[in-house]
Design brief:
Elements: E1 8-14, H1 20-29, E2 34-37, H2 52-63, E3 66-69, H3 77-84, H4 90-103, H5 106-110, E4 118-122, H6 131-141, E5 147-152
Parallel strand pairs: 1-4, 1-5, 2-3, 2-4
Helix pairs in contact: 4-6
Length: 153
């Protein structure tokens, strides 16, 4: 096992069924350094306080942290549609999403160290069946450093 100074912490959070107060307090309390939006689209009216432009302002003003939107970390629209329409199973979704991350070569393109203290954001309330968990686990699996994943719920 590597020593703790090599430890990378990746956070995940979903905004559904969270009040703005709870959402921003979770980020502050956990000392998140950067919010990384991993949704395909971050401009839906259903997003409420988590709409991309607003969220960038809110996290800077309320938490003093930066905001990035990285669509390379999102599933394809086709994959998401097939999952929502129950045309594929969760294991099939995992397999396809993992292949997508590999094809996009996200580890080489982005690395992992720069995301230490970052929080991956999507809409799902629970990380169990969400691509934010799969992304964090993929990064952990492909990291030479020790990675700790913390789901903010």
């Amino acid at each position: 096992m590597k020593n703790n100074r090599d430890m990378i912490t990746l956070f995940t959070i979903g905004f559904t069924k969270k009040s703005a107060e709870l959402f921003f307090e979770l980020l502050k309390k956990n000392k998140v350094k950067q919010l990384v939006d991993i949704r395909i689209s971050n401009s839906s009216q259903l997003s409420g306080f988590a709409k991309g432009k607003d969220l960038k302002y809110f996290v800077k003003q309320i938490c003093g942290i930066d905001y990035k939107h990285i669509t390379d970390f999102a599933p394809t629209k086709d994959l998401l549609n097939r999952w929502h329409k129950e045309m594929i199973t969760w294991p099939e979704y995992i397999e396809e999403f993992t292949k997508t991350l590999k094809q996009r070569d996200i580890i080489k393109k982005y690395g992992i160290k720069q995301f230490d203290g970052s929080c991956f954001l999507c809409s799902e309330e629970d990380p169990e069946m969400c691509h934010r968990r799969l992304l964090a686990e993929y990064m952990k699996k492909h990291s030479i450093e020790e990675v700790k994943i913390v789901h903010l719920v």
